[in-house]
């Protein structure tokens, strides 16, 4: 009986030790990110942000140093304007975008009123950009004065550019803005990035 208890104890100790090693390995890397738990019926596909054998990110986030941006008008009607904020990977390596851009209208005098609101469709999903590839975020804004804005002349100061910050970054891209003033206090709706 004593031998059985010792054998069971050693077996439990060995399995706990093995689990402890696995936990230490997973927790020791600073480059892993949290993701949805894998389905019990199929293996999870590899994530572009998981660490490779060397401990480096397989695909790095796109930042302002490798992105060039432009705003392209797409549609207009009944006081509404629509466009796309398009970014191009000008770097020599693939990078990934996931989420929403920051977007602050500016002119020669500084910041112009901007109220950025996130649209749910399309929502955030990782977009891998090979060198030369593009991603876009949909934009929507109004050109009819609202809430005490002047009706004679521009409703807001006219912007000449925007400071657009890629998702999860802090440095902005300077993007030309040639589409006139944005009314309703500079309210712009923006979607998450998607492949363009």
From TrEMBL:
The keyword Signal applies. Residues 25-53 are annotated as: Disordered. The keyword Transcription does not apply. It holds the Pfam family DUF4232. Keywords: Signal. It comes from the Bacteria. Residues 62-193 form the DUF4232 domain. Residues 28-42 have a biased composition (Low complexity). Residues 1-20 form the signal peptide. InterPro entries: DUF4232. This is Peptidase C14, caspase catalytic subunit P20. It comes from Lentzea guizhouensis.
């Amino acid at each position: 009986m004593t031998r059985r208890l010792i054998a069971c104890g050693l077996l439990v100790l060995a399995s706990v030790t093995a689990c402890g090693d696995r936990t230490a390995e997973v927790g020791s890397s600073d480059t892993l990110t949290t993701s949805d738990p894998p389905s019990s019926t199929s293996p999870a596909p590899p994530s572009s942000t998981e660490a490779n054998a060397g401990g480096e990110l397989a695909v790095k986030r796109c930042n302002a140093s490798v992105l060039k941006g432009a705003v392209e008008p797409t549609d207009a009607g009944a006081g509404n304007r629509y466009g796309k904020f398009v970014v191009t990977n000008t770097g020599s390596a693939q990078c990934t975008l996931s989420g929403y851009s920051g977007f602050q209208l500016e002119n020669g005098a500084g910041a112009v009123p901007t109220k950025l609101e996130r649209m749910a469709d399309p929502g955030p999903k990782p977009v891998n950009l090979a060198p030369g590839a593009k991603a876009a975020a949909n934009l929507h804004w109004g050109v009819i004065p609202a809430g005490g804005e002047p009706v004679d002349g521009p409703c807001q100061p006219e912007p000449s550019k925007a400071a657009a910050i890629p998702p999860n970054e802090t440095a902005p891209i300077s993007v030309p803005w040639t589409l006139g003033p944005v009314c309703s206090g500079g309210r712009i709706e923006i979607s998450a990035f998607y492949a363009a």
